[in-house]
Design brief:
The structure holds three protein chains of three kinds.
Chain A lengths: L5 H10 L13 E2 L2 E9 L5 E10 L2 E6 L9 E4 L4 E4 L1 E6 L27 H4 L6 H6 L3 E6 L8 E7 L5 H4 E10 L5 E2 L7 H30 L8 H4 L2 H4 L5 E5 L2 H14 L3 E5 L7 H7 L2 E4 L15 H11 L4 E3 L10 H13 L1 H6 L3 H6 L17 E4 L10 E6 L2 E2 L5 H9 L9
Chain B lengths: L1 H11 L19 E9 L5 E10 L2 E6 L9 E4 L4 E4 L1 E6 L28 H7 L3 E6 L7 E4 L1 E4 L17 E6 L2 H11 L6 H28 L8 H10 L3 E7 L2 H13 L5 E5 L7 H7 L2 E4 L17 H7 L3 E4 L10 H10 L5 H6 L3 H7 L16 E4 L10 E6 L2 E5 L21 E2 L15
Parallel strand pairs in B: 1-4, 1-5, 6-7, 10-11, 11-12, 12-13, 13-14
Antiparallel strand pairs in B: 1-2, 2-3, 5-15, 7-9, 8-10, 15-16, 16-17
Chain C lengths: L2 H14 L1 H5 L15 E11 L2 E11 L2 E6 L9 E4 L4 E4 L1 E6 L41 H9 L1 E6 L8 E7 L13 E11 L11 H27 L13 H8 L5 E4 L3 H14 L3 E4 L8 H4 L5 E5 L25 E3 L14 H17 L1 H7 L4 E4 L5 H13 L4 H8 L1 H6 L16 E4 L10 E6 L2 E4 L19 E9 L2 E12 L2 E7 L3 E10 L2 E8 L3 E10 L2 E8 L3 E8 L3
Parallel strand pairs in C: 1-4, 1-5, 6-7, 9-10, 10-11, 11-12, 12-14
Antiparallel strand pairs in C: 1-2, 2-3, 5-15, 7-8, 8-9, 15-16, 16-17, 18-19, 18-25, 19-20, 20-21, 21-22, 22-23, 23-24, 24-25
Helix pairs in contact in C: 3-10, 4-5
Classes of the chains: A alpha/beta, B alpha/beta, C alpha+beta.
Chain lengths: 430, 447, 572
């Protein structure tokens, strides 16, 4: 499975995707597969200790303890292995940024503070080197989000395989709202309390003004529309009609409370994202019935006097309070750490089962794609992986990977560099 | 004073099980008996159901059926794992300054001058099993300042009390994008390229050699020595082998460049820090005898770390390079045990190999491996106790012991472990950290 | 609009036209005193902390205390102050401040090579003498004197080594007196702080410490080289004169102590570390909370200068419940717990605990002086960064926090006299300089007022914060808007506008004089509006007055020239 040809490595550098055997390259390929003798964690229907799973036409055709293996299937013996649905990261910028410090490679931020019509999917680079590096950890599907301003654009759920953004489209798009924030960001933020309050109020005013406009636009639109081209308003119409959720980023406890009030007032379907201080207002979030995508878990507490583990416990505490919680990494090149974020949440109070749901079926439901993703069930997309152990456990290896029925090589630039350099030739001698 | 504060806190009903000022004084060297634990010595295998007797801050005995003299606290370790206290070879916590970025060579500054023992980040690191850190100058300058090795004796206001007794002098170098960005592109002052960085070292070492020669000559002849310059003194001390270099570096070519420069000037001890492309020149690093202290998986945040691999540490170790995993971050430092475990996902290291990355190897890189870094009789009783195997994602540190003194105890963890409270600070100060990637550049752009 | 110009004219008029003045054109001009000899009779005299004469007479003559005693009769040429209800203390000494010192100018220019700036640019100017930057008309001199201060040890403003300090008398320059006439003696100190000069090396505390090492070690080497040279110049090259190293050598010799200003415990340890390492005499200035360093200071010849500034008090929430702290018992076996039950709902007491933490921190600052006294560390007080209006209240808070009032008095009188080696100051004894504070009761009591402050025999009537007629702290008014003002001076009426903007505690504004000037320290307490502004040559002009509806009525006071009635109106 691992290749050492430097030509191949060069190709991988350029493409970031992998080829298949006939012409010397390994490509992802589709077909009928039977994964046998596996332990299967279905998420929604318990665990099958020794079962099989058949993949045909991109979907799971059969799964169970006793499954007839089709004659045309490529049989993959999964003895000692466990099958999991592909993990879903509820918040990343994957594909929108290649190298953090090089603005030429960063496409998640556009100019202007109200621009919900900016489509993240448009700018996803299917050949980002980070994509194979991510999926070989078992993360198969991510929400990738625009950044900056009040309404930075529309996030997209993408599967981590495909040669065009459209091929990667996993069937969900959501307008992002960065709710006005009373928090400071990073150690260089030296704004005074007064500055922060002023900026918060200005942002809230701007948001409400925008919203009033959008509501008016929606009413005119419902009455036949006008001839003005206002894409930023049009992008908000599905949210106003409650046809799509608004993804609202809020972190500080009082900002979350304000956001909950705002959601109530505007009577919209919303998902809170980030929510680092969610535990402080967990009962209120639960009472409002607003779903949450939280993360990163592996982050420092937001207040100096917080307990050292407040960030680790946040997801579990919200879950305890009855909040629907999905977990995100908030990452770009290290989305592969999603399972570790979930693992820490599991260890610090959430428990493994809830944490596993928080990166599979829960985000699938939040994004309305649970008919296709988030669990091992007949008829769902064959987006799953095979591992030699618990996917949260640090040393676990993912040994096989399927996205939408395609068998994806366990290859990435990180792996190929390992292959090339573990025993470099020439070594010391010239 | 202490009583007054504590009394007030209690009266006011803080739910604190413990407060920071309640911790034992920094000079305390503790006595302790840990009984019946799984002991991960790192250098000498794993011992089940084993006792560790600590006297006066040192590991006195390791074995079974040990007994403690009366009055010595006994910790029931049944079902728990004990590993050596974690050592972070690259940290910028507990510092009031990071970069003296107004010059490209600042070997005269000393991080030990600006230790901030009140940083709550120290307690958070303890809560991740860390007992020793190496605080470095940032990477804005080709030659940064002298580093400081600290024991995390949290609970004191005296910065000197954290000093790691007997740790050798170490100093920060920095190659590549950071010094060329801050000085070359930021201020139009050399270096702006990796070529310039090399010549800067050659000039600085040559000047230091002349300085030392002139001093020696002056001593012999009774003439006036050159004006005192701590900058030159420290550089000359490097040439005399008295100071270990820790060099911020990423690319294979610049790593080889510095080894060549050091060879030319007769310097043979160096640890490369970050060294994301160390895997590409692992044979050369091993041949030089250089150490490598790396990130577990950071990459792609800038161009010089784009051609990186998370398998770096495994390749280095397998090629005979003494490697460690560091944090460079107030966040990662809280779970270095997890960062080390990633070397098992990315390169199949054994448990002992993975644990050595955060214990005995960084101890060696800092020149303190005779005192800490493994559980051995006679070494400092710096220990981290976990409720599972520390390389498991589900394991949690429950107790961290420095010099035999329990400085973190999950069961007594207080609500608010700050040592110092600003009487004029707003109570609700919320600060969100995204990745503090490269805390190395803190202060670098402050004018 | 012509305020400043007119005031300049006025000042000239006051200073160089005494003849015109004596003809009675300017009614407000003080008369020249008939005598410089005073006798305060039958007063309670606190000669030094703990040494009190209950009913004594103090005679002041020729700037000195001529006599003090219970059986002293006032001389016939004395102006007699009936002291039956008065208390006399030695004039206070401010052990460290910048009162009466001008800001250095033009120091932050761009430089080509920020890594190698000149010493001047880097703020390394220990040779600079604060006497060259005095401003005797600084209104702060009067503010401090009104509180009882007669002498201050002052240092230049600046960066890491701003210069040398001297003691000054807190009085205004007298007619035809050189500005340096208020200097008592000096230099007394070299001022040091962890303050960078913007845009150049050293730009950090660690850089400053490294630079100090270089400077002092080189100064020591140079001292030796200079000695050798002058002992035996034959065949030796002359060590070049170095204006920066020269005064540092005096510090190394112990002649000039380093007055090191620190802001927190970290800086205090750093100042101690660097001065111990370099063998420098240290006076530790400004540490607001000393407990962590008392061990390090005690038994050593290091004086602390405690700030008279304190943080605002914090209301504590005492409703929360006490939760016991488990303590490990020696010898007992303890179990490592699986984490105890704890929920996100633990937050109820958090806020209370935090405000208690803050209150405790304020308490630590309040008991700073008491802590120093208990640890027997010699200490004096500094007015640095203290608002004059808060100083007496802060002293009362310190006393409430455990400071003995004799120790407080010593820190204002005998201790700084000893620290600065000024034996003519600090006590009320025959032969000492006639620096006296005369009050109508115990200085540290709330209701007590300062009546007179004598500075080297010159009597100053203390101006207590005048009760401004109509001021009502509970009134709610809006000060913002543009006001048209009129100031009545002996030279005529001046007019212009001032504009106040902002809200709540963050007010700002401008005033139109010859030009538009930003005003500072704009406060509105109830209906009392105050602000100040400055312009070179004029000193600081303080405005205060009461707002009623759209009219303002108050005063504008100009340094030593006095106060003038000021009214203003705003369009309705």
């Amino acid at each position: 499975m691992k290749f050492t040809s430097s030509l191949l490595t060069l190709f991988l550098f350029l493409c970031g995707s992998v080829a298949s055997a006939q012409d010397g390259y390994i490509r992802a390929y589709e077909g009928t597969f039977a994964l046998t003798n596996a332990r299967i964690e279905t998420i929604t229907n318990g665990t099958i200790e020794n079962g099989s799973l058949v993949i045909r036409d991109g979907v799971i055709e059969e799964v169970g303890a006793t499954v007839a293996i089709p004659g045309d299937a490529e049989v993959i013996d999964c003895s000692g292995m466990t099958i999991y649905p592909g993990m879903i990261d509820g918040g990343t910028r994957l594909g929108l940024q290649e190298i953090g410090s090089l603005p030429e490679t960063v496409d998640h931020g556009e100019i202007g503070d109200i621009r919900p019509h900016m489509q993240a999917l448009t700018a996803v680079n299917p050949n980002s080197v980070s994509i194979p590096i991510t999926r070989v950890s078992g993360v198969t599907t991510v929400l990738t989000s625009p950044s900056g301003g009040i309404m930075p654009g529309t996030a997209a759920l993408i599967n981590l395989h495909g040669y065009t953004p459209d091929q990667m489209d996993a069937g969900f798009k959501g307008v992002v709202l960065n709710f006005p924030s009373s928090a400071r960001f990073g150690r260089f933020d030296r704004r005074t309390d007064e500055d922060i309050e002023k900026q918060f109020n200005e942002a809230l005013e701007r948001l409400n003004e925008t919203w009033e406009q959008a509501v008016l636009f929606e009413r005119i639109d419902a009455n036949g529309g006008s001839d003005l081209y206002q894409p930023e308003m049009a992008a908000l119409v599905p949210v106003i009609r409650r046809e799509a959720p608004l993804l609202i980023e809020a972190h500080a406890a009082k900002d979350i409370e304000k956001a909950l009030e705002w959601i109530e007032e505007k009577s919209i379907d919303a998902v809170l994202t980030g929510v680092r201080e969610g535990w402080r207002v967990a009962d209120k979030i639960a009472a409002a019935g607003v779903r949450v995508i939280t993360g990163p878990v592996l982050t420092t507490p937001s207040r100096d006097y917080d307990r050292y583990d407040a960030a680790y416990r946040n997801a579990g505490w919200m879950h305890d309070a009855g909040v629907t919680v999905a977990i995100r990494s908030g990452e770009v090149e290290n989305v592969r750490n999603l399972p570790f974020n979930a693992g820490f949440a599991a260890a610090y109070g959430m428990g493994r089962e809830a944490a596993l749901e928080a990166v599979t079926i829960v985000p699938a439901r939040i994004f309305g794609v649970d008919e296709r993703l988030g669990s091992i069930e007949v008829g769902k997309d064959a987006t799953l992986f095979v591992a030699d152990g618990d996917p949260f456990e640090t040393k676990t290896q993912v040994v096989d990977l399927f996205i939408g029925g395609y068998r994806i090589p366990i290859e990435s630039r990180h792996i190929s560099l390992y292959d090339e350099f573990l025993n470099r030739n020439p070594g010391l001698e010239r | 004073m202490r009583l007054t504060l504590l009394a007030l806190l209690l009266l006011a009903g803080s739910a604190a099980a413990q407060t920071a000022v309640d911790l034992p004084p920094a000079e305390t060297r503790g006595d302790l008996l840990i009984r019946g634990a799984t002991v991960l010595t790192v250098t000498n295998g794993t011992h089940e159901n084993t006792d560790i007797l600590v006297r006066d801050g040192k590991i006195e005995a390791l074995g079974q059926g040990l007994s403690a003299p009366g009055g010595v606290r006994v910790v029931d370790g049944t079902g728990f794992h004990v590993m050596p206290g974690i050592i972070d070879a690259h940290s910028h916590i507990a510092l009031s300054n990071v970069n003296e970025a107004q010059n490209t060579i600042t070997s005269e500054v000393q991080m030990g001058d600006v230790t901030d023992p009140t940083d709550v980040g120290i307690y958070r690191a303890l809560a991740g099993g860390v007992t020793t850190i190496h605080t470095l100058h940032g990477s804005a300058n080709a030659v940064g300042g002298e580093s400081e090795t600290l024991k995390l004796r949290y609970g004191t206001f005296d910065p000197n009390a954290l000093h790691f007794e007997g740790a050798p002098r170490t100093l920060k170098f920095a190659l590549g994008e950071n010094p060329t960005r801050v000085h070359g592109r930021g201020r139009d002052i050399r270096p702006r390229s990796r070529m310039g960085v090399e010549q800067l070292y050659r000039e600085a070492f040559s000047e230091a050699r002349r300085y030392r020669d002139a001093q020696n000559e002056a001593e012999e002849n009774g003439t006036l020595a050159p004006p005192y310059s701590r900058r030159m003194e420290t550089l000359a001390d490097i040439l005399d082998g008295e100071v270990l270099i820790h060099c911020h570096s990423y690319r294979a070519d610049e790593i080889v460049m510095l080894m060549n420069v050091l060879r030319d000037f007769g310097v043979d001890r160096i640890t490369f820090q970050h060294v994301n492309e160390g895997f590409k020149v692992a044979p050369e690093l091993a041949d030089f005898g250089a150490g490598a202290s790396v990130f577990s998986d950071w990459w792609a945040y800038k161009f010089e770390v784009y051609y990186s691999t998370a398998y770096n540490v495994a390749i280095l170790l397998r090629n005979g390079v003494r490697a460690s995993i560091n944090s460079d971050s107030g966040e990662l430092i809280r779970h270095l045990y997890h960062e080390a475990a990633k070397s098992q996902r990315y390169g199949d290291l054994t448990d002992d190999e993975a644990l050595s990355l955060i214990t005995i190897n960084p101890a060696w890189q800092l020149g303190i491996d005779d005192q800490v870094g493994s559980i051995e009789e006679g070494k400092d009783a710096d220990l981290a106790i976990f409720d599972g195997h520390p390389l498991s994602v589900y394991a949690r540190p429950v107790m961290t012991i420095v010099d035999g003194v329990v400085r973190f105890d999950e069961a007594r963890d207080g609500d608010d472990m700050r040592l110092d409270v600003d009487p004029e600070e707003a109570i609700e100060d919320v600060r969100l950290y995204d990745h503090d990637e490269e805390s190395c550049l803190v202060d670098a752009f402050v004018l | 609009m012509f305020l400043l110009r007119r005031l300049v004219a006025l000042s000239l008029f006051l200073l160089i036209a005494p003849v015109v003045q004596s003809q009675g054109i300017t009614a407000d001009t003080p008369l020249r005193p008939v005598t410089r000899t005073f006798a305060i009779t039958n007063a309670r005299v606190v000669q030094s902390p703990g040494r009190v004469l209950d009913r004594a007479t103090v005679v002041i003559r020729g700037g000195l205390i001529a006599e003090v005693g219970e059986n002293v009769s006032p001389p016939s040429d004395a102006d007699i102050i009936e002291g039956d209800s008065l208390t006399v203390y030695a004039g206070f000494i401010d052990a460290f401040s910048h009162v009466g010192v001008t800001e250095p100018e033009g120091e932050d220019d761009e430089v080509d090579d920020p890594g190698n700036p000149t010493n001047d640019r880097a703020g390394i100017v220990p040779q600079r003498d604060v006497r060259t930057m005095l401003n005797p008309s600084d209104s702060a001199i009067k503010d401090l004197r009104n509180l009882g201060f007669a002498v201050a040890h002052i240092a230049p403003n600046g960066a890491m080594l701003p210069g040398q300090g001297v003691a000054i008398l807190l009085r205004n320059a007298q007619r035809f007196e050189n500005t340096q006439g208020i200097v008592l003696t000096g230099p007394l100190s070299i001022y040091a702080q962890f303050e960078r000069s913007p845009g150049v090396y050293p730009s950090t505390t660690m850089g400053i410490m490294a630079k100090m090492r270089d400077l002092f070690i080189e100064a020591g080497r140079r001292r030796q080289a200079v000695r050798q040279y002058f002992d035996d110049p034959d065949g030796r090259s002359r060590p070049a004169y170095d204006p920066v190293l020269e005064p540092l050598t005096r510090a190394l010799d112990g002649d000039l102590p380093l007055y090191f200003r620190v802001e927190d415990t970290n800086e205090a340890f750093r100042a101690l570390n660097i001065t111990d390492e370099l063998g420098l005499p240290l006076v530790l200035v400004g540490l607001p909370w000393s407990t962590p360093i008392t061990d390090r200071l005690s038994g050593r010849d290091i004086t602390a200068i405690a700030p008279l500034a304190l943080p605002d008090t914090v209301a504590t929430d005492t409703t929360a419940m006490a939760i016991p702290v488990p303590t490990p018992i020696a010898g007992a076996t303890i179990t490592i717990h699986q984490r105890r039950a704890r929920s996100y709902r633990d937050l109820d007491n958090e806020r209370a605990a935090l405000s208690a933490q803050r209150a405790a921190a304020v308490g630590r600052y309040e008991s700073n002086a008491a802590t120093l006294a208990a640890a027997e560390i010699p200490f004096s007080f500094s007015t640095y960064e203290a608002k004059p209006g808060d100083i007496r209240a802060n002293l009362r808070r310190m006393i409430a926090a455990g400071l003995n009032s004799d120790d407080a008095l010593a820190a204002l009188t005998t201790s700084p006299a000893e620290l600065l080696d000024l034996p003519m100051l600090g006590t009320v004894e025959e032969g000492k300089m006639a620096n006296l504070v005369v009050t109508d009761g115990d200085y540290f009591a709330d209701e007590t007022k300062v009546r007179y402050v004598f500075v080297e025999g010159i009597r100053h009537e203390a101006e207590e914060d005048k009760e401004i007629e109509g001021a009502d702290p509970d009134a709610v008014v809006d000060a913002t808007g543009t006001w048209s003002y009129t100031v009545s001076t002996p030279g005529g009426e001046q007019e212009g506008t001032f504009t106040i903007t902002g809200s709540g505690s963050s007010l700002s504004g401008t005033i139109e004089t010859d030009e538009t000037i930003e005003v500072n320290n704009v406060t509105l307490e109830g209906n009392l509006l105050t602000f100040s502004f400055s312009q070179s040559g004029m000193g600081i002009i303080n405005v205060s007055g009461v707002i009623e509806g759209n009219s303002f009525s108050g005063t504008a006071s100009v340094g030593s020239m006095g106060s003038f009635s000021m009214t203003a109106t705003r369009p309705g």
